[in-house]
Amino acid sequence: MTRTVILAAAVASAVTVCESLALGQVYPNRPHGGWNGIPFWTEPCSYQQVFAAGQFGADPLLIRSLSFAPDSFYHGEDYIISGLVVRLGYTDKAPGGLSSNLPSNLRGSWTEVLNVPSFHGIVDAGGPDHFSMRLQFSSPFCYEPGNGNLLVQIDLGGSTLGIAISTTAGLPDASRAWNSPIFGNSTDTIAARMLFETASCGVGPTLQLAGQCPGVVAISWRNATPQRQMGIVFARVTGSFRVPGGPCAGTALGLGATQLQLVNVISTGNGSGTVNGNAGAGACGGFLQLVVVDGSPCTTSNVAQVP
Questions:
Q1: What are the residues facing 288 on neighbouring strands?
Q2: DSSP code at position 103
Q3: Beta bridge partners of 177
Q4: CA angle 161, 165, 168 (to 5 degrees)
Q5: Which 3 state secondary structure label does DSSP give 4?
Q6: What is the spatial distance between Cα 26 and Cα 193, in angstroms, rounded to a whole number?
Q7: Cβ neighbours, 10 Å, residue 266
Q8: 120: number of CA atoms within 13 Å, CB side?
Q9: In a structure prediction context, what are the per-residue pLDDT tens digits for the chain, which is 307 residues long?
Q10: Distance between the two ends of the chain, CA-based, in angstroms?
Q11: How far apart (Å, rounded) are the C-alpha atoms in residues 238 and 17?
Q12: Residue 12 near residue 292, CB atoms below 8 Å
């Protein structure tokens, strides 16, 4: 039996997760400073922006979309962005400290939240606080401020229109870096103003890992439905794997398919608890997620990296 089938059969169905009402907050929370064409110009571009964790409070935050405020130059015109990919992750770099060597800024692995070969929109410009250019994630990202600064990467193959967006002086809250054939490979302390649509990650289990790898790793959880079975799922990479069949069919994980496997099935107890496990060298740097058997689709936790 394949690991995918084992996962589908062993982690049963769950009720749709009831998220808190979506909220909109602009990050960095600073006034408009000017219009800028990076990254949504006519040429290919890879763009990164770091956000200081201190802006977000202490609780995990489910990020469901990012929106931008476009300039009025092409108001009302259609545009198509080719090869649009958005990824979120963590970085040890502070605002103002990003490198133009973009891969070096990431800690751990990306979570791909949007991948659209051809993204179509109409420029709806109503000023610097009119965040009408919305990138709705296919897989929301649970950001935990305690794990480090947030890093956003936007890749595109080009746009049929050069769309300028609202920016601000980012420091000390944010800054950007980019690689582009037209804008070069560089960094500065300006930041795109992004409207985050968020909800609480607290609905459902929250996973935390402690210990060392190889060695004993403590797996702790809270906010789980009491007295239910819960699967501990491992993968080598993060991603957006969707369980293809069985009682958990359709459940979207924050894990990729590489080495995806069900490690164990345990009880949630009273909704919180800790279990210890021996992690071999092959698990180090991988990722775990909890999947609770309490409805359909299954309730999932945040993704945590094996230390």
A1: 234, 304
A2: G
A3: 48, 187
A4: 160
A5: helix
A6: 6
A7: 15
A8: 1
A9: 233 333 443 333 222 222 333 347 999 999 999 999 999 999 999 999 999 999 998 888 888 889 999 999 999 999 999 999 999 999 999 999 999 999 999 998 899 989 999 999 999 999 999 999 999 888 788 899 999 999 999 999 999 999 999 999 999 999 999 999 999 999 999 999 999 988 767 566 888 888 889 999 999 998 887 888 899 999 998 888 887 876 676 778 888 889 999 999 999 888 889 999 899 999 998 999 999 886 667 788 888 888 8
A10: 29
A11: 20
A12: no
Distance between CA 205 and CA 161 in Å, rounded? 43
Structure tokens at 126: 């109503």
Q: Is 128 left (phi over 0), alpha (psi -120 to 50) or beta?
A: alpha
Number of other residues whose CB lies within 10 A of the CB of residue 103: 9
Two structure tokens written together for 297: 């689709």
CB atoms within 10 A of CB 152: 24
185: helix, strand or coil: strand
Taking Cα atoms as reference points, which of 194, 147, 219 lies closest to residue 40? 194
